[in-house]
Amino acid sequence: MFFDDHQIRPCYERVFTHFSGLRSAALEEQSRKARRMFNRLGVTFTVYQESASLERTLPFDILPRIIPMDEWSLLERGVRQRVRALNLFLRDIYHEQEILHDGIVPRELVVTHPDYCWAMVGTKVPFGQYVTLAGIDIIRDPAGRYLVLEDNLRVPSGISYIFENRQMTQRLFPDMCRKYRIQPILPALSFFARYLRSLAPRQTSNPTVVLLTPGKYNSAYYDHVFLSQQLGIHLVEGKDLLTLNNRVFMRTVEGLKQIDVIYRRIDDAFLDPLAFRSDSVLGVPGLMSAYRAGHVALVNAPGAGVADDKAVYAYVPEIIRYYLNEEPILQNVPTYLLDDPEQRRYVLANLDKMVVKKTTGAGGYGMLIGPKASAAEIEDFARAIVNDPKEYIAQPTINLSQHPSLVNGRFEGRHIDLRPFVIGGERVIPGGLTRVALRKGSLVVNSSQGGGCKDTWVVQLDGQQQEAGRECRIVC
């Protein structure tokens, strides 16, 4: 919200004026109102613990994040470039494997990866679209640079919260919202619905699209319900589907109905008990045979998890250069691959300054944040790295940018990141999802780890604000 000299950024002037005019009690009441409405609407997520799973209302911070259009244009081009390259990478590793032959990405890293799906080798994917929906996690460092923290290409979640956050902000502060030219987000849902239908393998004017969910006990079930309703597609579980003659059908009161596109929110291992885990009761027996025969589309394609592995992440700049012959628009966070002896020695000598992650980890679990870790935790991670270095990567601890957040009736700085969602490598939902580490000093923004979220505005500044922004940048 502020420049280094504490001067307000031009895009925040009206928001700053609005919130500065509200008393602490009024701010708290608006925050409570948001919690009540989210609770009534059922905007929740599930936290899994050792002894139980707990359903919680999504923590919502009422002060929106604002991204000027010129900054957003850079982010939008950067994430689209990244997803296009990763989609080509996935097609290549399941077909010609040219990038592996040329030694750009180590063959062993790819073909021995637990998410490398051998059933996908040689499989023709509808329109070559392996990644229909991607969530790219972005951070901003102390120098103001946007950096990619990680890619989410399997079954990325959180898209519903973008729309619920916007509706909530408009309910709470309608007058303030009208003072800004905020890029609309609803057209992206219509685009997503059309895009899903365009993937149908058979020629039909009205293809049938379903969202396959593990069920109501899944942590992202609200996301599944929201999207099925807003996209106008059926919400189904594995038991609602069956396969006949390498085609997938849905059971309905009127009989069997052929399915053309499955937007799946089930991990690869549970999709088809005949092809993957035989004990899965969540998937559809014979689904992969129907998919390989070209009679149904799966979104995202099985095996996409290889491309969002945290070790493969280190090679994404080279992947972009290889397939697109372009320089990366957005840079990675510097990353150490711990199967390299020299890099491993350096990391082990500096673990107290590093963030260490499992290459296949997710959700903020199984991480070491060196500056905040105890000596025992550092020792445990050092031992784990020595025992199995390929399972981990390390990155320098970056002090993520902060944003004012309402905490106990007053605004305090909290660390944030940004997850733009890319549809079909083409359309990016304006703003995406800003996640907030609501615990003071925490760098972990995941909702399962005490994080919350904000409404995120992409705004077109008027001429006066743009001129003020230029003057401020010159002064700073």
Present the secondary structure layout.
Blueprint: H1 13-20, H2 24-41, E1 44-48, E2 53-57, E3 60-68, H3 69-93, H4 98-101, H5 107-111, E4 133-140, E5 146-152, H6 159-172, H7 174-178, H8 186-198, E6 209-212, H9 221-231, E7 234-236, E8 241-244, E9 247-252, E10 255-258, E11 261-264, H10 287-292, E12 297-299, H11 316-324, E13 331-332, E14 336-337, H12 341-349, E15 354-358, E16 368-369, H13 375-387, E17 392-396, E18 402-407, E19 410-419, E20 421-423, E21 427-428, E22 433-437, E23 451-459, H14 463-475
Parallel strand pairs: 3-23, 5-13, 6-7, 6-11, 11-12
Antiparallel strand pairs: 1-2, 4-5, 4-20, 8-9, 9-10, 14-17, 15-16, 15-17, 18-19, 19-22, 20-21, 22-23
Helix pairs in contact: 3-11
Task: Name the features.
476 residues; alpha+beta; Dna Ligase, domain 1; 5-stranded mixed β-sheet; 14 helices; 23 strands; 24% strand; globular; disordered C terminus
Major sheet strand order: 3-23-22-19-18
Number of strands: 23
- Percent helix, as a range, is 25-40%
Taking the sheet with the most strands, its summary is: 5 strands, mixed
Enumerate the spans where pLDDT stays under 50 for 5 or more consecutive residues.
467-476
